[in-house]
Structures are given as C-alpha cells and as structure tokens.
Design goal:
Elements (H helix, E strand, L loop, with lengths): L4 H15 L4 H13 L3 H15 L10 H8 L4 H7 L4 H9 L1 H10 L12 H18 L7 E4 L13 E7 L2 E6 L3 E6 L6 E7 L5 E4 L3 E5 L4 E6 L5 E6 L5 E7 L4 E6 L4 E5 L5 E5 L7 E7 L6 E8 L3 E11 L2 E11 L8 E2 L5 E3 L2 E8 L2 E8 L2 E10 L6 E11 L8 E6 L3 E6 L3 E2 L5 E2 L1 E7 L4 E8 L10 E2 L16 E7 L3 E6 L1 E2 L2 E2 L1
Antiparallel strand pairs: 1-32, 2-3, 3-4, 4-5, 6-7, 7-8, 8-9, 10-11, 11-12, 12-13, 14-15, 15-16, 16-17, 18-19, 19-22, 20-21, 22-23, 24-25, 25-28, 26-27, 28-29, 30-31, 31-32, 33-34
Helix pairs in contact: 7-8
C-alpha cells in the first residue's frame, strides 16, 4: 500500500541516511537490487532525464579554447563532421576553428599556409576539396595511364628505342634512336604529337619554350630552335660521349658533362668553349644542375658521376667569357644508387643519412650511416674579403618509413613529398602482380601516401621521370597535378600516368 507524502518523506530520508553509510560495494548492490524491481516508467526517467542531466557533461564548454582546439586536431575530417551534429555549441565551435581545418588540410597532404590569411569557412572548404582529391588520387592510377610513342602501337614491325624522356609543361618529349626528338601535348587526356625535330643520337635532352638541348653519343651537344627546328649552336670538344647537358640562360651559358670525365662550359649562342673542368670527378658525369644563387656574378653548379661522387662548385664570372674557379666541395656518397635531386626551393636532396665532416681545403667528406633517410642540403656562397667560399649545410633529415622497399630509386623530392621508383614486385589491392611501382612518401607524417603499380620495366633500366613537381611541396587549391610521371616501355613507347583535375578521375 503506498505511503502518504509525509510518511514517504520520512522513509526516504532514513533510507538515504543509511545508504550514505554503506561501503561502495554495498551501494552498488543496493542500486542493482532497486533497478531490478523498477518498471518502464522508472527506467525511462533514469535513461532519458536523470543520466543526460547529471552524467553527460559538455566537456568542451568547460575547457579553455586552446585545449579544445588541440583535442579536435586528433580527429579526422569524418569524425569532425559527426561531432558537429552533437549540439549547436559544438557545431558553432568546430565550424569557426580555422586552425583545426588547416591542420586537417595539412594531414592529408596540403601545404602549410603561413601566415594563414583565410577564413575558417575557406579553410574548411579547402580541406574538403583536398579530401575528395586524395580519395581519387589513392585510387588505382592505372586508370589514368595511357601509352603513346612515335610509332603505331599495333605495328611493331619496325621501331627504334627511346631515350631520355623529359617534361616541360605542357609537353612531353623524348629522344629516339632514329635521331629525332618527338614532342607530345598530353594536357587533353590523350597524347597529340605536336612537333618533331631532326637532331642526332641522343643521350639526354632538355628543353624550354625557346630551345631544345641535346647531349649526344657522338661526343657533341647542341641547341635547337624550338619554333623552326633548326640547329642554333653546336658544342664540339669532348673526346667521349656527352652524357648530360644543362643550359644556364641567365648567364648565356651551356654546361656539358661527358664520359671523358670532364665538364665543359660553352657560350650559349656561339658555341665557343670557354672553360674545361678536370679532376673534379673520377667517373662519367651523368648529371649537371645549375643552382640558384643570390649573387648575380656567381655560377653555382651541382654535378655527379657514376661512382657516387657529388661535386658542388662555383665560378666567379669576371666577364661574359671569363671565369675564375673559386671553390668546390666534393661529397663522396658510397653505395648511393640514386642521383641527388634538387627541390623547387633549391635544396639538394641526397637519398642517404649523411653527416658532413672535415670541410677543409675545399673538400668535405660525407660519412654515410644508412639509406633509411633523406638528407637535404642548402648550398650558398659566403662572401669573404680574401676569397669567397661555398657553404654546404644539412638543413633537414627525414626518416623514411620502414615499409618502403630497399630496392628504390629517388626520382623527386620536395618539402612535403618524395617519390621513389621501387624495383620490387608488388601486389595490387585486386591481387594483381606488377614488376615495379611508384611510391609517394609523405615526409611530414613519415608514411607512404600512395603506391602506383607499373606493369613494365624500362628497357634501359632507367626510372620514370616526374612530370609536374609543384605538388611535391604539398597540395594547395591550384596545384593538383595532371601529368605525374612518364616511364619508358619496350617497343618504342612511353607510358604517362595522370592524376585528376578538380577531384575527377579520368
């Protein structure tokens, strides 16, 4: 029989008084016994009214805003989207947290915006655009591969080997054993042959909007007018094959490296030999790259050979045709299978964990401690009253993920991403086997961002060549790459792997 209100109040007070004297275990047992005899009305009150009002605490409203932002940074985009639906205060806070959305944008490969001069809404839009792009980027890029070459793909009765593919937006070019250089426009989702220049046997090519530069097995190099296809100048003087060529148009120069172990400096227009550099390398010079210098009268160059020697040297330009060899720095990198690359902001990236030691008398020895890292070096010229000297400083070391194969060759690097050609059999998500692959490594998060299978080997064993490189520093609103990398195939063809435009996969 129910108690009247006065008796019930007295009984309840006595129960509460006794309950407060019980042990924790006894209290739990009492609550359990009471709950077991409760009906639907009591349990509904407990779960729908009492617990939400007393136990579910909005911790965000009780924490400092800086702490809340740090907590929200641990969530991914999908979790943030769900968190906004909890209540109006969370929705308002998350939408207004520019720092959180910029951090999410960075986590999926975006550039760090410094200073972040955008609104919270713009930062959120930037993240979701990149989120969609990344989902498409991480799909099989084989869908975006197409094959092209100077010969009919179905007609293999006669073909010549291709050599040294090169990219300069919007064209892809390649040298050929038939002594021609072919140019294709690939911006429309297919390869259209737009130009053909009759040259000579090609070891390496480079080109810009004005000139084509060729290094040849016939011991010469040459420059060709891109508009007319006519020979502009020929550089004759090496006694063995010319392996590489590097134009330096700001100084009206052309540099060549040869299997005769020398580097030569030429006048760009006349073809006159200005200087020969000897005793810098003991192997065939396979790469030359002019580095940026804030000093207009200095020529700073990176060269490397087939024995793993990397040389950084510079010349002081006394006048248009006279140089003084001021200083050089020889970096020995034993067992370095990859050539160094140069980032968009002028850093030299070497695929090894290296430490400079004893930089004296113009020579710096590098101690290599392992291949599991990338080392980035800045190269500058230090002005002195007596003699300027080169300064080579390691500004960044990045550990590579352990899941990255040891059978790799570095083909490009930037502030955010590094791209490797992996010559090891890989298995796709569909259990298809491929002879090699491209691995894109996120240098900030130290993990593999994407793996793209390649179902062919280059007939010369050369790694693929990168197309657009802006994205290596991190994605932004305008640099989603279309032409990613170009690889050689047998039977006189190239394969171009493409990305997507505006988040749409071709």
């Amino acid at each position: 029989m129910p108690l009247n209100q006065e008796d019930f109040s007295q009984w309840l007070d006595s129960v509460v008084e006794v309950f407060s004297t019980l042990s924790e275990e006894q209290k739990t047992g009492t609550v359990k016994a009471v709950l077991e005899v409760c009906g639907c009305e009591q349990l509904t009150y407990l779960t729908q009214i009492f617990i939400p009002a007393t136990c579910q605490i909005d911790f965000i409203s009780h924490l400092p805003n800086d702490v809340v932002i740090q907590i929200l940074k641990y969530l991914d985009g999908e979790s943030l989207l769900r968190s906004r639906k909890v209540c109006k205060s969370w929705y308002k806070l998350i939408n207004a947290s520019k720092e959180v959305w910029l951090h999410q944008f960075w986590r999926i490969g975006g550039q760090v915006l410094s200073p972040p001069s955008i609104t919270a809404g713009e930062a959120q839009k930037l993240f979701w655009q990149q989120h969609v792009y990344r989902k498409n980027f991480n799909r099989q890029l084989k869908k975006g591969q197409f094959i092209f070459g100077p010969y009919d793909e179905e007609d293999t009765s006669e073909f010549f080997k291709l050599k040294s593919p090169y990219f300069f937006k919007p064209y892809v070019a390649v040298g050929c054993e038939d002594r021609n250089v072919y140019f294709w426009d690939t911006t429309l989702g297919a390869a259209f042959l737009v130009k053909e220049i009759e040259a000579h046997s090609v070891c390496q090519i480079k080109f810009d909007k004005d000139f084509l530069y060729t290094a040849s097995y016939d011991n010469t190099a040459a420059s060709w007018n891109m508009e007319t296809g006519q020979l502009h100048s020929k550089y004759v003087g090496h006694v063995n094959a010319v392996m590489c060529v590097e134009p330096v148009k700001r100084h009206n120069l052309v540099l060549t490296g040869s299997a005769d172990l020398t580097i030569k400096i030429w006048d760009h227009d006349s073809g006159e030999l200005l200087q020969t550099l000897v005793n810098l390398h003991s192997g065939w010079i396979k790469q030359l790259r002019a580095l940026s210098s804030p000093l207009s009268d200095h020529l700073v160059v990176l060269s490397c050979d087939t024995k793993g020697q990397i040389c950084v040297w510079y010349k002081l330009l006394i006048d248009e045709k006279t140089f003084s060899h001021e200083h050089h720095m020889l970096l020995n990198v034993p067992f370095c299978l990859s050539s160094p690359t140069v980032t968009n902001d002028g850093l030299v990236c070497i695929p090894a964990d290296i430490v400079l030691s004893d930089a004296c008398k113009g020579t710096a020895t590098i101690v290599q401690t392992g291949r599991g890292m990338l080392s980035f070096f800045s190269v500058s010229v230090k002005e002195n009253t007596r003699k300027d000297t080169l300064v080579c400083s390691c500004v960044r070391r990045v550990c590579l993920p352990s899941s990255l194969s040891e059978s790799r060759t570095l083909i490009g690097a930037g502030r955010r991403f590094a791209v490797f050609h992996v010559t090891e059999e890989c298995v796709s998500e569909l259990n298809d086997y491929y002879s090699s692959s491209i691995s894109v490594v996120d240098l900030e998060l130290k993990k593999i961002y994407h793996t793209s299978p390649l179902d062919h080997f280059s007939p010369f064993g050369e790694p693929p060549v990168l197309g657009e490189t802006d994205w290596l520093d991190g994605f932004n609103e305008s640099n989603h790459p279309w032409q990613l990398w170009i690889s050689q195939m047998s039977e006189g063809h190239l394969s171009l792997t493409t990305g997507n435009r505006h988040g749409n996969q071709i």
